[in-house]
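2024-03-11 09:14:02 INFO queue: dequeued item Strictosidine synthase conserved region domain-containing protein, len=350
2024-03-11 09:14:02 INFO validating residues
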Amino acid sequence: MLLQRCVSLELPVQDRSLSRRHRHSQECANHAAAASMEATSATVLGTGRSSKHEADHVEAASARGLARRRPAAPAPAAVAKAIDASTTQRLELPDTLAIGPESVAFDGHGAGPYVSVSDGRILKYGGEGAGWTTFAYSPSYTKNNCDAFSDLPPIATESSCGRPLGLRFHVESGNLYIADAYMGLMRVGPNGGEETVLATEAGGAPLRFTIRTNQVTVLQSGLTYPNGIAISADRTHLIVALTGPCKLMRYWIRGPNANTSEPFTDLPGYPDNVRPDGKGGYWVALHREKYELPFGLDRHLLAIRIGAEGEKLQETKGHKNVRPTKAVEREDGKIYLGSVELSYVGIVNT
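2024-03-11 09:14:37 INFO prediction written
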């Protein structure tokens, strides 16, 4: 089965994976209706903190089913004061072609952010002076002369030009891995340029991509609408966001429970990407709240911080017109918000 939709690629040390269907609606109800089109999410394992064997693998999560075992309930945790994201700094994208910075990543030197945008490119922000520049693009972007489609909406060109949705740097090599909704899993070197296609098929199941051999191995089938994915701080398991059920799932990759999965925590909204928070837990971007009303207060949950054992630690709230796909916290405490529909990257000061 051709890989139809990619979403988020995760490398464990840097700040999302094969496949999910790109959303063109703000309604998460439409997400659930599109679940049959979803495919895989991937995590690249490999940094100085993991073994050479781990450094050679891309761990992935994909589509259809429910987790089977429920872990013991975590002990209650103190809940930190909510973060107010009503006013955010904006890194405006360079032109009308570049909207929807779905994924946000920083390289091993801290440069960036790098973002994946709707016209098929990966953009890099070089600071106030340099601004945004094109960093990478798929082979089809050049072949189909996609930079000439300035008058066409992205929905009309993305099947030809690509729609990159997940970005993750491999720290040791400096390579950037890209999960594209149409092209599959791709890679580009630290200097950018044209991307190389690594895998285009997922078979509707989670997979492991071995970098040395380019082999794809199925891990597990039967997940429901997997979206974002992250690896735990101790490298023993993956945390997978299940958008339709509003849950996080834990998939064990090492230890006595290896190759099994279990529920991790319930969420108050529809999750998109999951990112490590640098403190042993995770930031989960929420596209909308589970029971959100179209009227009333113009505020809703944007993201939630989840602890290492599934406890809810902190919320980020902001305007309803902001529906983030990714929340990336940096060492300085700033949180970068990606989006599938806005023309800027949001920066929240915590």
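2024-03-11 09:14:37 INFO annotate: Residues 154-161 form the longest helix (8 residues).
2024-03-11 09:14:38 INFO item closed
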